[in-house]
Specification:
The complex is a heterotrimer of chains A (300), B (324) and C (391).
Chain A (H helix, E strand, L loop, with lengths): L1 H37 L6 H18 L4 H24 L7 H23 L15 E3 L2 E3 L1 H23 L1 H11 L1 H6 L4 H27 L6 H15 L4 H21 L5 H15 L8 H6 L3
Antiparallel strand pairs in A: 1-2
Chain B lengths: L5 H20 L6 H24 L8 H17 L4 H23 L4 H21 L1 H4 L12 E2 L2 E2 L3 H23 L2 H11 L1 H6 L4 H27 L9 H14 L4 H18 L6 H16 L6 H18 L1
Antiparallel strand pairs in B: 1-2
Helix pairs in contact in B: 1-7, 2-7, 2-10, 2-11, 2-12, 3-4, 3-5, 3-10, 4-10, 11-12
Chain C lengths: L5 H19 L8 E7 L6 H20 L8 E7 L4 H14 L4 E3 L4 H14 L3 E3 L19 E3 L4 H14 L4 E7 L2 H13 L6 E8 L7 H10 L3 E5 L3 H12 L6 E4 L6 H6 L8 E4 L15 H15 L7 H18 L3 H9 L2 E4 L4 E3 L14 E6 L2 E4 L2
Parallel strand pairs in C: 1-2, 1-3, 3-4, 4-5, 6-7, 6-8, 8-9
Antiparallel strand pairs in C: 10-13, 11-12, 13-14
Helix pairs in contact in C: 2-11, 3-4, 5-6, 11-12
Chain lengths: 300, 324, 391
């Protein structure tokens, strides 16, 4: 009988870990898209998630638009914000060293947070769950239908992105930019446009993550920073530049957090997760699936 | 790059010595002394960070951790165990240095974003420890009743005295750093910054120097933390969170990463911004920080230090045009 | 023409900045009654400081419209501490030494309040804190309050006692506690642990989570296994809502759920989307102005405040604003009697008795600078999405 309980509790932690891990994975994927094309880590990525949730609140709760339209409009608006960041911030930095870009994107994230505080205030907001709140029984553990949406949408997003980068022309063009920008220019790819697109796409994915996680966890103006840190950690864990790495990193991070909270100490769960990350980096400096050569030559 | 002449060092020391009296005598700005004390405390950290980031080309997104380690060790050892505060400052800096060494050896092998993440992770883990270990640190509620410092039996109880304590330490740190920069070590650091591979092929012990500078910056931050603890007499983990590490970054970027003066100017300006000029703005403050940081990054990538240079360049151009 | 050196420019700039600051700091001396206020308007404790600031400004506006205190207008100087001890320290110092205020209301958090006690004592300025910790009004060396420091909120211990008393009445003695790692949560957790023996409570689980965490099912799952009769949760912000939702999801509603007074805004009930039905919590009278019986001594005061606040700010009341209300009103009363004399104001504050505030009826004394007891909390339960008295 005890082993059944053990399994149920273990399963509950796993479900919790995979749900939050899916969000981290989406943030990590967003980071990765921009990184792949530009080698920039956009620390404002977490804010896209925050904005996705909060803007959806405006379209769906305040303006009462039908859910699909509100969703689409939210994603488009946030994608445009991503575009603006590329145009206004990234393009303006004259000496784009890794350090200046990190700082520039951190500055942008602070700005977005400040603006969000003005517009939405400091209170948390809620979105209705897509298919109700009746928890589903799953081998003794419970899972929220919204959590299934989160995991499901992660799978869809990853699938779409893989298809996009493998099979579509634009996707292949973006991959060309990340492999070798000069060569890409030579064959006529507009690198500038690809960069713009990468920002828009990254922002869009962040927005999707924000919309689907708000029914579970609510959303407020300052959620972005923590998500950015976790998403970044997930990407590093999985290996910079690798899509499967981003997903694995995110899920792994979420799992570690949930399992540590469940079995060891809830207060230290984040510390454990980061410690695991550190140890992994010491042993394998390029992350689980990252490129070792890239890791060695990064300069500031 | 601003050559740090002997003359400029003397001018700086003179300003440090005279400043407080000016503020003291004008009642409307006498509280500027308090702000300057904080500025000095920040300077101690930023000088070290500037060496690490500006000269050696590394990054640390978790330096608040060393600031906190210094502060908490000083605080805990003096209140719970009644040890002499100066001894505690020494213990704290040894501990910080040691931790910096242990963390630095593996972490500084990382590069670029991996290094950034490594230091970020370290900073956050340390913050969590401050928050969780309630028996020692008092947790989120903080710990108070930290005694004030005494020098040879004379209590350092007025602002003026504390100002001199902090800023004279800053001057010492500055002079030491300047010597460092203009020595072999400095040249090695700059070589490392330009290209680790090239430097190493010239026989520079890249790893060794990186760790030395990292440890040095951690020690400075620790001393700063101890001074902070004895000044404000109350510690709270939120003073050592990620945002403070980012604020340090803002100070350095705003002042100018490539110059020690930048570290000082950045610290002073952010101190004034935080505690004085933005006081009226409340909600605007977050926005203001973001905007300022962004504007400086875009328009003044070399920081404010480069401003007088550019300014005097323009003036001289103008003057020579008139002459012609 | 000599080249203008970098040093010269630097010194020039420094002098310009100094002159600019001096000029911009020239404050005109007016005949107003200056009261200082330090709140955590932004930052982690903004749920406290924001409503407190709004309340304070509203009250000063009202009193000035009515002609001021004894005919003299009141000037409120509000400073935002962002929940940061350093800023609080500097702000309070500035208010007390530069602006020479007659009294300071705030800070919002216990940590920050404790940090500025020495300043109040040194400058001999009355400080009426809006934070909860009993340590604010208790000098551990003398076991008496600090001379110049008062506070208006009920202590966390009173909230805990209200909860424990209720648990006892339900014959419950096996509980689990959950808290977040913020100052608010940690303080509540400490009090829960401290007072457990006095009420025969055995704490079978003590779980924590971060203030920005999004999922507490791991912690609740652990608790479920240990089969407590009730869960007491102490947190603030969205986590209090998330944890209730998780509790419902995990089908744990057989185990009674108690929240802290931090839950005391109907907005939280709304955000919980039905999951908060049946949840218990202790709350000061201000939050239940509507359902207070007509003959309740606090009915008039609370109803007035709620209506004024809703009308002016168009947002639901947060009970925390009431702390600032009580603090400021008492300061007004003290100034009314004592005039612009800090020492006399302090004496008047100490003499306050029978003062009907938002959070209770205050009776200050030389030994008690809080003036409340555990009756300042009502035990409520969420019924049909609204507050009701718990039985």
């Amino acid at each position: 009988m005890d082993s059944a309980f053990f399994f149920t509790y273990f399963l509950q932690f796993v479900i919790s870990g995979i749900t939050i891990g899916s969000i981290y994975a989406m943030v990590a994927v967003g980071f990765n898209i921009i990184y792949n094309v530009t080698e920039i880590i956009n620390f404002a990525q977490g804010e896209f998630v925050m904005l996705g949730g909060l803007i959806m609140v405006i379209f769906y709760n305040k303006l009462d638009l039908p859910i699909l339209i509100a969703f689409l409009m939210t994603v488009i608006v946030v994608a445009m914000i991503g575009l603006l960041i590329d145009q206004i911030v990234i393009k303006s930095i004259k000496q784009p060293t890794v350090l200046t870009l990190i700082i520039g994107t951190i500055a942008t994230s602070i700005l977005l947070k400040g603006a969000a505080m003005f517009i939405w205030g400091k209170n948390p907001y809620d979105l209705p769950a897509f298919s109700g709140r009746e928890a589903i029984n799953f081998f003794g553990a419970v899972i929220q239908p919204q959590a299934l949406w989160v995991i499901g949408i992660l799978v869809v997003v990853v699938g779409l992105l893989s298809f996009f980068f493998e099979k579509s022309i634009i996707g292949k063009a973006m991959r060309a930019c990340s492999d070798n920008q000069d060569a890409a220019l030579l064959v006529g790819i507009s690198v500038k446009r690809m960069i713009l697109l990468s920002f828009a796409l990254s922002a869009a994915i962040g927005a999707v993550a924000g919309v689907i996680v708000t029914p579970i966890a609510l959303m407020e103006y300052d959620r972005g920073a923590m998500l950015a840190v976790k998403g970044f950690a997930a990407l590093i864990l999985g290996g910079l530049g690798s899509f499967p790495g981003a997903v694995i990193g995110g899920l792994l991070l979420g799992l570690i957090e949930a399992l540590v909270a469940g079995y060891i100490s809830s207060g230290y769960k984040d510390a454990f997760a980061l410690a695991v990350l550190l140890i992994l980096l010491f042993v394998r400096p390029h992350g689980i699936l990252g490129n070792p050569t890239v890791a060695k030559f990064k300069k500031f | 790059m601003f050559h740090i002449t002997i003359k400029s060092r003397i001018v700086f020391i003179a300003i440090v010595l005279i400043c407080p009296w000016i503020f003291y005598l004008i009642p409307a700005v006498s509280h500027y002394l308090d702000i300057l004390i904080f500025a000095g405390i920040y300077c101690l950290i930023t000088i070290g960070l500037s060496l690490l980031m500006g000269y050696a080309g590394q990054i640390s997104l978790g330096h608040a951790a060393f600031f906190g380690i210094g502060a908490y060790i000083s605080g805990i050892l003096t209140t719970k165990y009644g040890l002499n505060p100066w001894v505690c400052i020494l213990i704290a800096l040894f501990v910080s240095g040691f931790i910096a060494y242990c963390i630095g050896v593996p972490t500084l092998k990382l590069h670029g974003h991996y290094l950034a993440m490594g230091t970020l992770a370290f900073g956050i883990i340390t913050f969590i420890i401050f928050n969780e270990e309630i028996t020692y640190t008092g947790g989120p509620d903080g710990m108070g009743n930290i005694k004030e410092l005494q020098l040879l039996g004379f209590p350092i109880d007025t602002n003026m005295k504390y100002y001199y304590l902090v800023w004279l330490t800053v001057v010492l740190a500055l002079l030491f750093s300047v010597n460092l920069i203009q020595s072999r070590v400095g040249r090695a650091l700059r070589a490392i910054h330009t290209s680790e591979v090239a430097a190493s092929s010239m026989g520079v012990n890249v790893a060794g120097y990186k760790i030395q500078i990292f440890v040095f910056s951690a020690i400075l931050a620790s001393i700063s933390g101890s001074f902070y603890a004895h000044y404000i007499k109350f510690l709270n983990p939120t003073s050592f969170d990620l945002f403070f590490s980012i604020k340090l970054l803002i100070m350095i970027v705003m002042g100018g990463m490539r110059s020690i003066w930048g570290a000082i100017i950045g610290a002073v300006i952010i101190a004034f911004l935080s505690f004085e000029w933005l006081g009226a703005f409340h909600e605007f403050e977050t926005l203001a920080y973001g905007a300022i940081l962004l504007l400086v990054t875009i328009f003044l990538p070399d920081g404010l230090v480069s401003l007088p240079g550019k300014f005097s360049e323009q003036i001289n151009k103008y003057l020579s045009k008139i002459k012609a | 023409m000599k080249k203008i050196s970098f040093q010269t420019l630097f010194i020039l700039a420094l002098s310009l900045i100094t002159m600019f600051s001096v000029v911009s700091c020239e404050k005109k001396t007016t005949q107003k009654l200056k009261i200082g206020a330090v709140f955590s308007v932004t930052g982690g404790a903004s749920f406290l400081g924001d409503p407190e600031k709004k309340t304070a400004e509203m009250l000063v506006e009202q009193v000035n419209k009515a002609g001021g205190i004894n005919g003299v207008q009141v000037e409120l100087i509000v400073m935002d501490t962002e929940g940061d001890a350093t800023k609080t320290n500097l702000a309070v110092k500035k208010l007390m030494t530069q602006d020479k205020v007659l009294a300071v209301v705030g800070p919002s958090t216990s940590g920050n309040s404790i940090a500025v006690i020495p300043l109040a004592e040194e400058t001999m300025t009355p400080l009426v804190s809006c934070a909860a910790s009993y340590k604010i009004v208790n000098n551990p060396d003398t076991n008496k309050p600090y001379k110049w420091v008062f506070k208006t909120p009920q202590s966390d211990s009173m909230a805990v006692e209200a909860i424990f008393t209720h648990l006892q009445s339900k014959k419950i003695n096996k509980i689990a506690i959950l808290s977040d790692t913020s100052g608010f949560g940690a303080s509540g957790r400490a009090e829960l642990q401290r007072l457990a023996k006095d009420y025969n409570m055995s704490i079978v689980a003590d779980e924590t989570y971060g203030p920005k965490d999004t999922d507490m099912t791991p912690q609740l799952t652990k608790i479920k296994k240990l089969n407590p009769q009730a869960i007491v949760n102490w947190s603030i912000g969205p986590t209090q809502v998330t944890v209730v939702r998780n509790w419902k999801d995990l089908k744990m509603d057989g185990i009674k759920f108690y929240q802290s007074h931090g839950f005391g805004s109907l907005k939280n009930v709304e955000l919980a989307a039905g999951a908060a039905e049946g949840v218990y919590l202790p709350l000061g009278s201000v939050a239940i102005a509507d359902i207070l019986p007509e003959n309740h001594p606090q009915k008039t005061v609370t109803r007035q405040y709620v209506n004024d606040y809703n009308a002016k700010y168009n947002e639901p009341l947060s009970s925390f604003g009431g702390h600032a209300h009580d603090a400021l009103k008492m300061v007004f009363a003290a100034i009314g009697k004592a005039g612009a004399d800090k020492a006399k104001i302090r004496d008047e504050l100490e003499k306050i008795s029978g003062f009907v505030g938002q959070h209770g009826i205050f009776n200050m004394s030389a030994d008690d600078h809080n003036g409340l007891d555990k009756t300042a909390f009502n035990m409520l339960v969420v019924k049909d999405g609204k507050w009701a008295f718990a039985d």
